[in-house]
Amino acid sequence: MSTSGRILLVGFGNMGQALVRGWLESGRAAANVRVVEPVASVRAIARDLGVAASDSAAAALEDFPADVVVLAVKPNQIGSALAECSAAVGGATVWLSIAAGKTIASLSAGLGAKAAVVRTMPNTPAAIGKGMTALVANAAVTAEQRALCTDLMSAVGAVAWLDDERHMDAVTAVSGSGPAYVFLLIECLERAALDLGLAPALARQLALATVGGAGAYAAVSDAAPAELRRRVTSPNGTTQAALDVLMADDGLSALLTRAVRAAAARSRELSAA
After folding, report:
1. How far apart are CA 111 and CA 106, in angstroms?
2. pTM of the full structure
3. pLDDT in the model for residue 82
4. Cα separations (Å) of 82 from 8, 10, 159, 201?
5. Which DSSP string do the residues of 70-135 spell out, in sequence order?
6. Where would I find the H helices in 34-77?
7. What angle do CA 93, 95, 100 make, to 5 degrees?
8. pLDDT above 60 (res 1)
9. Which segments of the chain belong to CATH 3.40.50.720?
10. Where are the domain boundaries for CATH 1.10.3730.10 in the chain?
């Protein structure tokens, strides 16, 4: 992993802070990172990490020519961020956006057709370095810029490049929104444990450890999830009794398919807005 390159991070919310911590922990020099954030108390967090922070992108760029501008602002703030940065950024800069629903076309509209633009969809486990980020680039992005963007997002978890931006809606529905589905599973397991009479603390511990442990096991196993499921399931046993409910025609698979399709449809609607 290369740790060179000057990074201007616009927006220092939860994801921005996760990124900076990941970059620093992976060996990137704090002097090569600048943060733009309007809230003084949040800028103080960056300075505590040794990273210079400003309330103005234009001011930050006066003495800091960035190789990559990371747009970590809310979608409704993208327009003003592009307007402030684009006049001061050179043509060799790559623009890396994590703003949900903002397409490459909409970003290019504010930057110009020749701008190198990468759109990404990270998810919340990036906060502990266990995120999943999908990236897609326009034709102006060079191999070196792709490598830089890969390094930046790899600092907070796994990465995957898409060949077609149309797949970003599916990625958003599966991994972008997916942590919420897993959190709901934890909620449901905890609630079921309480319903069976277990103490609240034990119900929470069982639900958290079971979901976390199963996910970690699946991640390192060579076996497919279906095979792992079969290994846990004894014929006519307790697991089979539960799976008969979960795997019914109207069970968990059908429910999740409908849910993910609904999320993808909403992603398409937001991208078109």
Report:
1. 9
2. 0.91
3. 86
4. 13, 10, 25, 48
5. EE-S-GGGHHHHHHHHHTTS-TTPEEEE--TT--HHHHHHHH-TT-EEEEEE--GGGGGT-EEEEE
6. 40-48, 57-62
7. 175
8. no
9. 7-168
10. 176-272
What CATH number should be reported for the domain whose range is 176-272?
A: 1.10.3730.10
Per the DSSP assignment, residues forming a β-bridge with 71 are 10, 97
Give the Cα separation of 246 and 101 in Å (integer).
Answer: 32
pLDDT in tens, 72-116: 998 888 888 888 887 767 678 899 999 888 999 999 988 888 889
Whether 2 has a pLDDT exceeding 70, the answer reads no
> Which amino acid is located at 103 in the chain?
T
d(Cα 186, Cα 208) in Å, to the nearest integer?
A: 6
pLDDT of residue 111: 86
Please state which of the four CATH numbers 3.40.50.720, 1.10.1330.10, 3.20.20.70, 3.90.950.10 is assigned to the domain occupying 7-168. Answer: 3.40.50.720
Determine the Cα–Cα distance for residues 117 and 106; give it in Å rounded to an integer.
10
